[in-house]
TrEMBL record:
<dbReference type="GO" id="GO:0003887">
    <property type="term" value="F:DNA-directed DNA polymerase activity"/>
</dbReference>
<dbReference type="GO" id="GO:0032298">
    <property type="term" value="P:positive regulation of DNA-templated DNA replication initiation"/>
</dbReference>
<dbReference type="GO" id="GO:0003677">
    <property type="term" value="F:DNA binding"/>
</dbReference>
<dbReference type="InterPro" id="IPR007459">
    <property type="entry name" value="DNA_pol3_chi"/>
</dbReference>
<dbReference type="Pfam" id="PF04364">
    <property type="entry name" value="DNA_pol3_chi"/>
</dbReference>
<dbReference type="GO" id="GO:0006260">
    <property type="term" value="P:DNA replication"/>
</dbReference>
<protein>
    <submittedName>
        <fullName>DNA polymerase III chi subunit</fullName>
    </submittedName>
</protein>
<dbReference type="InterPro" id="IPR036768">
    <property type="entry name" value="PolIII_chi_sf"/>
</dbReference>
């Protein structure tokens, strides 16, 4: 079973997701970013280019030729296929309003939750699904993280 980390209290979900990806990338972590919503994924992609003035976070879509060699891979469709090409130490950042259709061999899932009411409601639904599947759940309040 995977460990699912929910980070609650983000001002902006996608902005916080970019900051989290940058932090984990700098720590050497490989991350699959799952988002079936094309517009949301495009917005995340644009934000990732400008997450910090002096930072560069190499990232590509899963269909890209060099996706296997890049630390941050964005997946809109075919999550199962993308996960099958990853090591078990890959993390999954879920930017969908629903649970991912598969967790493959990932051992950790990151969920960023903003103060938006719709976002909180869909996060509660995902929490329940993960709990019923037997995953280890952790809740973090943003701002309380070291």
């Amino acid at each position: 079973m995977a460990r699912i980390d929910f980070a609650f209290g983000a001002d902006q979900r996608l902005t916080q997701a970019c900051q989290t990806v940058l932090r984990q990338y700098l720590a050497g972590q490989r991350i699959i970013v799952y988002c079936p919503d094309e517009q949301r994924l495009a917005q995340f992609d644009q934000l990732l280019w400008a997450v910090e003035d002096t930072a560069f976070v190499p990232h590509v879509k899963s269909e890209h030729t060099h996706a296997a060699a890049v630390a941050i891979v964005m997946v809109q469709n075919n999550l199962e296929e993308a996960l099958s090409k990853c090591s078990q130490h890959t993390w999954l950042l879920n930017l969908s309003d629903d649970c991912p259709p598969s967790l493959g061999s990932v051992d950790r899932v990151l969920e960023i939750v903003s103060e938006d009411e719709h976002d909180k409601l869909s996060a509660r639904a995902r929490w329940t699904v993960y709990k019923n599947q037997g995953h280890e759940l952790k809740a973090h309040r943003l701002g309380a993280l070291a």
